[in-house]
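Q: Hi! First time doing this. I have a protein sequence and I read that you can turn it into a structure. Is that right? Here it is:
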Amino acid sequence: MNKEEIKTLIAKDLLSIKAVFLRPEEPFTWASGIHSPIYCDNRLTLSDVKVRNDVENALAETVKREFPEAEILMGTSTAGIAHAAISAHLLSLPMGYVRSSSKDHGRKNQIEGSIHSGEKAVVIEDLISTGKSVLEVVDVLREAGVEVLGIVSIYTYGMKKGLEALEADHVKNVSLTDFDTTITIAAEEGRINKDSLEALFAFRDNPSDESWIERYKK
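A: Yes, that's right. Below is the predicted 3D structure, encoded as structure tokens:
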């Protein structure tokens, strides 16, 4: 499949199992305090065999297409670990993962798995929002001498802050699908009102500006 076909397939999959759930009439509150019309829980993809197969095959296909020189896949902790393991299996590549912080016992590892200086890695992430957490993983790997080719993620909100952070750190991210695709398909499928799309795009452009809520109600 090409990129656009993957975008559509995965967006429909995530909507079908409510891994991406839209509720603009009653916004979710994120840990940051931001009120959001959308909530994403890609862990649900692991519980649905059809969706899991679609996601893992798409991750493997994307790594192979975008980063053919990849020598190892590194998952983010914890959401990216299972996806890195399955897609690495499909590609016959080694994998490991990066903890959010070093262990306080044993060898006190932050990087789990066998890595080598100069090795070419692709980071597997489930969700990109501000990009902060995945860029911390990239930094840990770079400090260990690993060459990070880029990131392959399941979903991105496409927020300006996240895009700018990735660009500033010279990191290429390729997401299977994104906010724009899912809300467009959701409107086509009658999950949300088509007239609400403008308000939802306003949220994506500036999540801190809650004027989108009033625009949605009009």
